[in-house]
Amino acid sequence: MISHTAEYALRAVIFLAQDYRGAHTAQEISQATHVPLPYLSKILNGLVRTTLVTSQRGLGGGFALAANPNKLSLLEIIDAVEPIKLCEQCPAGLGRKRGNSCPLHALLDQSVERTRAIFAESTVGDLLTQDKQARQKLCVLTNGAKSVKR
After folding, report:
1. CA nearest 89: which of 101, 103, 75, 71?
2. Lowest CB count within 10 Å: 12, 32, 62, 150, which one?
3. Using one digit for the tens of pLDDT, what is the confidence trace for 82-117?
């Protein structure tokens, strides 16, 4: 549903949010997120232009998240690099007549709007909290499993 560009931007921002206000080189982000460096560089520069990310050259420089992760919606990130768009042409070839669309076209439009709403309601901070909780649960399970072994 979202493009590779949007997915890669989400990966990069989530990585940066884990060290909020810390700066990381494009190389570090690329290695951690498994996004090809040339592609990532273009995405990061786009995020800098939208002011979601800052960049600083030189020693100790790099890219840093400019927005508060708890207030930054996933939709803002997606819209910054490649917005999710409504279907422009009717997939059944019927077109739009008097503001109405064919049932398939209407359904596709609905699904895009719902997807956008879900991304708008979800923040980067939400994902970090969920990830942290998942890691904690895994750690408890792993430690519990070790203590059970004989």
Report:
1. 101
2. 150
3. 998 887 777 667 665 555 667 788 888 889 999 999
Residue 56 CA, distance from chain mean position:
22
Question: Which candidate, 74, 14, 80, places its Cα nearest to that of 42?
Answer: 80
Identify any residues that bridge with 63 across adjacent strands, giving them in sequence order: 24, 55
Whole-number pLDDT of residue 88: 75
- Kindly state the helix (H) or strand (E) to which residue 25 belongs, with its residue range: none
What would the two tokens of residue 107 be? 């359904």
User: What are the residues facing 53 on neighbouring strands?
Assistant: 65
- For 21, 22, 39, 55, 91, the CA distances from 46, given in Å and listed in that order, are 18, 19, 11, 11, 31
Whole-number Å distance between alpha carbons of 11 and 132: 16
From 45, 35, 117, 43, select the one nearest 82 (Cα to Cα): 43
What are the structure tokens assigned to 119, written together?
């991304």
The rounded distance, in Å, linking the Cα atoms of 140 and 7 is: 30
Q: Domains plus CATH for the chain? A: 4-148 (1.10.10.10)
Beta-bridge partner residues of 54: 64
Which regions of the chain are under pLDDT 50?
145-150
